[in-house]
């Protein structure tokens, strides 16, 4: 009864993983493709990969991705996070919001963890339903209605809130009532038409 033989490094497998994540991969994903930490360090030294942050790497010759910074944050969250609030509004191109920080919602169970949160990341905690999440490119984002409700609860400025809600309704991104948005905008003249 011996130990299993080591997995042979499989560049194609590592590439497929990174390809779905805008050229990024984690130490664990590399290990799954047969790359030891020593071999990964060697690839960094010879310029085949670069270290983005602790435990997250990038294939150097992979084309730059539109949401690479967000994918790195998502990988930091062990793929448990969902982009939300103003970040989600921006990804959906709802309103003129230009978020200065990245908003990420993690499961409630993460609230107890001691985390070294990446710079410019704001954490929120909620156990999201599958219906409250969807993919925008290579990142998972709260649904438009969940995003609008989150923004209403977090007191997004009334003008941006109204603009985002109107655009979402006009583009058919939400159905039904936006009661939390309407309630938040009531003191400011409501949603309007």
TrEMBL record:
<protein>
    <submittedName>
        <fullName>Type IV toxin-antitoxin system AbiEi family antitoxin domain-containing protein</fullName>
    </submittedName>
</protein>
<dbReference type="InterPro" id="IPR025159">
    <property type="entry name" value="AbiEi_N"/>
</dbReference>
<dbReference type="Pfam" id="PF13338">
    <property type="entry name" value="AbiEi_4"/>
</dbReference>
<feature type="domain" description="AbiEi antitoxin N-terminal">
    <location>
        <begin position="13"/>
        <end position="60"/>
    </location>
</feature>
């Amino acid at each position: 009864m011996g130990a299993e033989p080591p997995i042979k490094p499989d560049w194609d497998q590592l590439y497929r993983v990174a390809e779905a994540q805008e050229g990024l991969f984690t130490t664990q994903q590399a290990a799954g493709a047969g790359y030891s930490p020593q071999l990964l360090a060697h690839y960094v030294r010879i310029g085949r990969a670069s270290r983005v942050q602790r435990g997250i790497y990038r294939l150097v010759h992979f084309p730059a991705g539109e949401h690479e910074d967000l994918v790195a944050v998502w990988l930091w969250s062990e793929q448990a996070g969902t982009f939300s609030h103003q970040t989600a509004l921006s990804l959906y191109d709802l309103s003129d919001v230009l978020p200065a920080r990245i908003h990420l919602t993690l499961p409630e169970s993460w609230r107890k963890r001691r985390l070294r949160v990446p710079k410019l990341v704001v954490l929120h905690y909620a156990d999201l339903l599958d219906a409250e999440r969807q993919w925008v490119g290579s990142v998972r984002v709260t649904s438009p209605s969940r995003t609008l409700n989150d923004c209403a609860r977090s007191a997004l400025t009334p003008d941006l809130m109204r603009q985002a809600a109107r655009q979402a309704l006009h583009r058919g991104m939400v159905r039904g009532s936006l009661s939390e948005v309407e309630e938040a905008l009531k003191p400011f003249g409501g949603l309007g038409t």
